[in-house]
């Protein structure tokens, strides 16, 4: 059994992050053997989650949690059931062999330690994603997978193709992540629940909500981008620029299935509706066909496998979208089978490239004698991928055919799509297993030979596991597939798997048809590849090129907007600032109809009227001032008038602050002006004056309107009561204003002081700028020459 207490699962999820910290040190200590001790981390994580299998198989679930940000209702909570446990086992189990494989594949690489760190960070992110219960926690780990995959795809950062692929993956999956965040926030707003386990307990809350369509589209946006569904499929193939261990792990066995995991997880609360059963099968089916056709076009082993991964993800989405129990059983089986055979085949492709020097199947052949262990692993994994007995891929194909054949609507279309897609995947499986290893021995760039155990341990174990899982089908169904299906459909379902079909029917006939069609297509593979190449050339434009065009358009738009709003002129900045301020004040007031209701002229005393008259006189003086210096001095009149008003209304502290600010402002501006041209004021066109005057009136009217409206509302004394009660008790001060500034708003006050200090230093620097002298052409020093104004002062003018 796993360690007791919620801390154990937390430690299991966070363990890879700890390994990421120590990985570079381990590489320095153990050199080329660092992979062995580092692989112990995912191995122990695997054993921890394996301890839950027995209890979960009997219908139990676990929800360990620790407070993370309790003030905001965010907990580091986890939800372990059949689905999350299966994913956790795949992530940690396959991850163990990926770490070993990385040790052999990148042996001697100068950044080997950094690579291990990135891999462990991704591993922890995926573990957190699939086990998270809290929606915000899930989203945090979701985005961490995008960030860490960006680092891994762009690991070879000196290559332009790697940098582009990393950026593309980050933009596409990051954009989908923002949509998913919006969906989660909407779900939390509609249901009042932030935990997945609570949502699953109230299945129909979202389906009955008027906002169901919006929630579904936002969730699908996150899932489709992450799992490379059409038309977002292009980023996954480009991600093959990453080192092969990354391809084998992130983009085959784990990360790209994050979207599929989310759809399976949300099936009980969002599934089985018309929108769900229409959108998912449609996009999944299109992705399946497109992925396999694009795979046929390739000659690079990794690209062939990458596009079949796209196709497999489409198949999983299509099956999940049917909301049929049998189809979902097929999806759960295929999820397990695909992780095993695709992880193995990617490592095989990497080993061939590492030892033979190329991945191009047109340049490979006859490697069977030089690499017998790798060839055996490739055959076993390819047989499972092709859906042939006695492998887990065969059982998965039988169940998924049974599920879609019995669909109440669209059965024929779904079945035809699945048969064609599976037949084409058989073609790629045969090509990957046979073309590099059989036939006449090719003249490869490197002398091919079997790699070290670090390179073939993973492919051998994963491919054999695919065989063993089928041979013990009943146990596989009882402990892994059954609990997973129960989690997806939202109720307990007992699964009895059999390697040998219990009856002859449509599933078996469809399997035979798939094999026959696949063999026929494989025999015409070269012609089929040429046809696809010509077709794609004729089409020309595609989503990958469209991505570049979209990014280019965004850059051009951003440049144009920046040049408009950041023109380099202070006057433009001031005008834009005041326009936005006026809009922010007046537009909401207008839309809400929150205009002041009881406007009346207050009953001023004679001296209050006198202060108001002085302020208006100062305003007029600013407008008619003939020099800048006069305008600055006149500008201080309003500030001093406001300071007097504060004093008359019983705010001496505020009044004193206003006096100081106005005095310093006038003095500093006057000092600066002595360094500038103090000729008469600028002559401006009447149109400019009217435009600026209208903006000034709008801002003033907006502030006056908001303030008058606020004063009409009932006074809320809670803040006043709070400060009165706690000023002395907490801050030990009786002057409430001082306590607010120094204690309750201490950081804010420090920031204001810092701004004033920096401003003062900048002004001092401007004042101390020495004028430049212009030497005479003859070189004779006849005294001071005409001075040039510094560029900073010239810009200020």
UniProtKB/TrEMBL annotation:
Bias class Basic and acidic residues marks the residues at 786-797
Name a single GO cellular component: plasma membrane
GO MF annotation terms: antiporter activity
What residues does the MrpA C-terminal/MbhD domain cover?
A: 613-676
What membrane topology does this protein have?
Multi-pass membrane protein
Every MrpA C-terminal/MbhE domain range: 691-777
Which GO biological process annotations does it have? monoatomic ion transport
Task: Enumerate the Pfam families for this protein.
Answer: MbhD (PF13244), MbhE (PF20501), Proton_antipo_M (PF00361), Proton_antipo_N (PF00662)
Source superkingdom: Bacteria
**Stored NCBIfam families:** PRK12647.1
Recorded protein name is Putative monovalent cation/H+ antiporter subunit A
